[in-house]
Amino acid sequence: MRTLILAAAAVATVSGSTALSEDKELSAREAEKAVSVRQSLFDLIGWNIGGLGPIARGRAPYDAALVEQSADRLAQLGAMIPDAFAADTSSSDVASEARPVIWTEFDDFTEHATTMAEAAEEVRELAAAGDEEAALTAIRHLASTCKSCHQSYRAE
Amino acid sequence: MTSANKKEPPIAQRPVWDILIRLWHWLLVVCLAGSWASAEFDRMQLHFWFGYGILGLMLFRVFWGFVGTRHARFSSFLPKPQRVIAYIQSLRSTSWTPSVGHSPIGALAVFAILAVISAQVLSGLFTTDDIFWAGPYNPLLGSDASSLFSSVHRINFNVIKAIVVMHIAAVLSYWFFKSTNLIKPMFTGQKPANVVPEQESAEAPRWRTAILAVGLSVVMVLMIVWFAPEPVDDFF
Predict the structure, then answer these.
(1) pLDDT higher at A20 or A133
(2) Stretch (H or E) spanning B15
(3) What is the distance in angstroms between the Cα of B147 and the nearest Cα belonging to chain A?
(4) Chain CA centroid to CA B114, Å
(5) pLDDT of residue B9 exceeding 60
(6) Which one, of B73, B55, B72, lies nearest residue B218 by Cα?
(7) Do the bridges between strand B190-192 and strand B13-15 make them parallel or antiparallel, or are there none, so unpaired?
(8) Nearest alpha-carbon partner for A78 in A123, A34, A36
């Protein structure tokens, strides 16, 4: 039990995450699972940001409840990103758009994810406070955090 | 410098680039710079507008390549391999003379630029950033094709940057090494009479043809945008 808790703690911290992935080669099945978890996470992120797009572009009416709910989910999903990438699959054959540099620059990668989660949290707070203008600006900032991370860490 | 025709002073100029081709050139510069900057600074709606602008410019250039004035027509500067090779050899010899319209290498560059920029706008119509923005025809694609087109759009931009650098380097080389100013004619439309024999002067554009070519380009862009499929709602 104690080892289990320690392992969980290791996954939760950045240094722990990289240490964990250095410990052993991933089996093909583990790599497949890791990629599948990551892609599922980004499917959920895409699903939740999908509703904010038309609002940010002015194609859909502002809906404070929807914005607050999506942003709340995005903040939680964003916080999962570093953990979901704990396993280094850069040397596996599983098809993935994750660039190997994720695992050599894991601190920076984590910082990008944290910035995104914080941007989502800010949207949630502003939407909850009823500040439509500021929430819209914060949504655009949130989208820019997606883009800047993709530029560095997602294959072209 | 060669002495010009006895009747004309050497500063006399003759028309080479018609007004539409010059406008086209500088509008393309503006739209390329604009679409780069708008993407860089995350003004995507603006990026779409610049892209539609470039699409229209590409269409117009193709029409004008068939019905435009003398040196704008594709048939006048088809880059035949033997001509290109002969021109490259002449560049190092004393027999080199400035071209009236596009030089054979310049002709190659024109077709390369048109192909690469067309590939960029066409792929842009199908591209998505997977966040907020998708080109009008992206909804037609499955996720694999969608990421393929998006990759083409990102990677091909590097080719455009390389071609732009080469284009500018070539123009500056003519200026420094051949004392030939190619920039001024792209504003004035004229080159010195000692470069342009009278029978090779460009004729004035036929206005009815010009209006038709511009109008057709605009209408085609509007139709392409208008008939785009409904955006897919990623949220449900």
Answers:
(1) A133
(2) strand B13-15
(3) 9
(4) 5
(5) no
(6) B55
(7) antiparallel
(8) A123
